[in-house]
Amino acid sequence: MKEIMVSYVFLFTLGRTKFLNNTFRWVSKRPNTSAEIKDYYHILDVKSTASPEEIKAAYLNLSKKYHPDRRSDDVAKMRFADIREAYSVLGKLDSRQEYDTDRKINALAGDTFRIHYPRPPPDLDMVGLKTYENVMRRLVLFAYLDCLVGCHLHKLGSSP
């Protein structure tokens, strides 16, 4: 079943509706792969409910411990780079909120194919957000079906 879905996705991205290539992306999410989002909370050894002050304190503590001036081994250098990356995301409110949202989406996705569409305006309430998601799903579905019909007609030798 997955092979068939992958071929449909491939046909979709090669379809005639080129404007969708810049707007929508198909993503295959498989747990426990290198594509999975890093757990920055685990890297900084804080809870996901930690305050900005707790995150900063954990960052300072770990960066002192693994700083390349204190430890010269390669593991410490890699760990220090991970710590800096984690703090660069969790240290800012907007990037932390985006990261938390991505974590929740990936946790719910499981082993499925998902569609990423343009970000909704930030001032939408929950009803507006649900409506926006439904409209985007319909647009993708119609474009996908249009591509499948177009590809099928192309195989038959006729034009849509």
UniProtKB/TrEMBL annotation:
Keyword terms, alphabetized: Chaperone
Matches recorded under Gene3D superfamilies: DnaJ domain
Stored InterPro entries: Apopto_cytoskel_mod, DnaJ_domain, J_dom_sf
Keyword Chaperone: yes
SUPFAM superfamilies: Chaperone J-domain
Residues annotated as domain J: 39-103
Domain of life of the organism encoding this protein: Eukaryota
Protein name in UniProt: Chaperone protein isoform 2
Source organism: Schistosoma japonicum (Blood fluke)
